[in-house]
Amino acid sequence: MDIKKIYMDANALLEGHFKLSSGNHSQFYLQSAKVLENPRTAKLLADELAKQIRASGVKIDTVCAPALGGLIAGFALAQALDCRYIFAERVDGKMSIRRGFEVTQGERVLLCEDIITTGGSAMEAGEVVKSLGGEIVAVAALANRGFCKRENSDVTTKPNCKLPQNIPFFALADFTFEIHSPDNCPLCKDGNEAIKPGSRGN
Ligand code: ZN
């Protein structure tokens, strides 16, 4: 399965000059929502991810996704794995689990994102799950930005990766494009202004 082609075909791999949520700049931006707007594509990707997870032998009781980014990918993956699905959301900046969702003692939870950059949001959701008695047994995402090592890839873990190294991380592809700090960005030096994805209709 050529994930990059699927992202390109869906106009989900944007080229330009983007200001990322981290404050850094990049020539490329991944907009997973554009890939997932087609439920058939979402199912295709989730089925492929589920295949990897099943082959690994890791037993999953529940998929938990951090909102908003992981909601659709997480739901599609839970459907493909035929397991329970819950989500975590930020309330006043703090990740929490609401909506009457319960986590039982020892419940085996996989955290699912659309894209893992450093894994920060996923692990924040993971801390909440653990505080309720759940166990984080795996992490999954459609795409990996190349800062964390995923199963079946040669990409190595970078110092800013926040995922624990003792559980598997499953993703369909690595998108390892460069990011630049704003004071050392070649695109800024060319005189272009960086835009925040989403601010101009993207
Ligand atoms: Zn720039």
Helix content: 25-40%
pLDDT averaged over residues = 94
Number of strands: 9
Largest sheet: 6 strands, mixed
- Cα-to-Cα separation, first versus last residue: 26 Å
Q: Any idea what the radius of gyration is? A: 17 Å
Strand content: 25-35%
In the predicted model, the low-confidence regions spanning at least 5 consecutive residues are none
Number of separate structural domains: 1
Instruction: Going across the biggest sheet, name each strand in turn.
Output: 5-4-3-6-7-8
Cα shape: globular
What is the count of DSSP helices, taking H or I runs of 4+ residues?
Answer: 6
Record keyword descriptors for this entry.
six-stranded mixed β-sheet, Rossmann fold, 202 residues, single chain, binds zinc ion, three-stranded antiparallel β-sheet, alpha/beta
Helix-strand blueprint:
Elements: H1 3-9, E1 13-19, E2 25-30, H2 32-36, H3 39-56, E3 62-66, H4 71-81, E4 84-91, E5 94-96, E6 108-116, H5 120-131, E7 135-144, E8 169-174, E9 179-180, H6 186-189
Parallel strand pairs: 3-4, 3-6, 6-7, 7-8
Antiparallel strand pairs: 1-2, 2-9, 4-5
The structure holds zinc ion.
The site of zinc ion has 8 residues, from helix 6.
Walk me through what this model shows.
With 202 residues, the chain is an alpha/beta fold. Helices cover 28% and strands 28% of the residues. The chain contains six helices and nine strands. Strand 1 (13-19) and strand 2 (25-30) form a beta hairpin. Helix 3 packs across helix 4. Bound molecules: zinc ion. Residues 17, 25, 180, 182, 185, 187-188, 194 line the site of zinc ion (ZN).
